[in-house]
Amino acid sequence: QGQLVESGGGLVQPGGSLRLSCAVSGRFVSWNDMGWYRQAPGKQRELVAAIPTIGTPTYADSVKGRFTISRDNAKNTVNLQMNSLKPEDTAVYYCNFRTVPINWGQGTQVTVSS
After folding, report:
1. Which end of the chain has fewer CB within 10 Å, C or N?
2. Coil, strand or helix: which one is 2?
3. pLDDT in tens, the chain (114 residues)
4. How many CB atoms lie within 10 A of CB 74?
5. What is the rounded CA–CA span in Å between residue 70 and residue 7?
6. Distance CA 8, CA 18 (A)
7. CB neighbours (10 Å) of residue 15?
8. Can you tell me whether residue 95 is helix, strand or coil?
9. Helix (H, G, I), strand (E, B), or coil: what is residue 30?
10. SS3 of 34, please?
11. 3-state SS of the chain: helix, strand, coil percent to 5?
């Protein structure tokens, strides 16, 4: 059914930037609506950004204007550029298919702290 491998997380100071990448196998990202999600300690997983096959991406209000989701069809990856990071962005970040999700990957930890 495919596999998702997230990377690019790390420790960054408030106001900093990170670029996350999700390598997808088993399905083409170009044929599917994709999403980036995050789960902070003690909280439910939430959708932060989604990119449809046709149309414009959408974002959670909390990240609008700071995060940008994109897909690289040649590499079969989905990326998340995160700018102006805040401590409340600290979470494990995951990607998945929007319509028919598959098993979650390990995620990538993002920690925003001074």
Report:
1. C
2. coil
3. 789 999 999 999 999 999 999 999 999 999 999 999 999 999 999 999 999 999 999 999 999 999 999 999 999 999 999 999 999 999 999 999 999 899 999 999 999 999
4. 7
5. 15
6. 7
7. 11
8. strand
9. helix
10. strand
11. 5, 45, 45
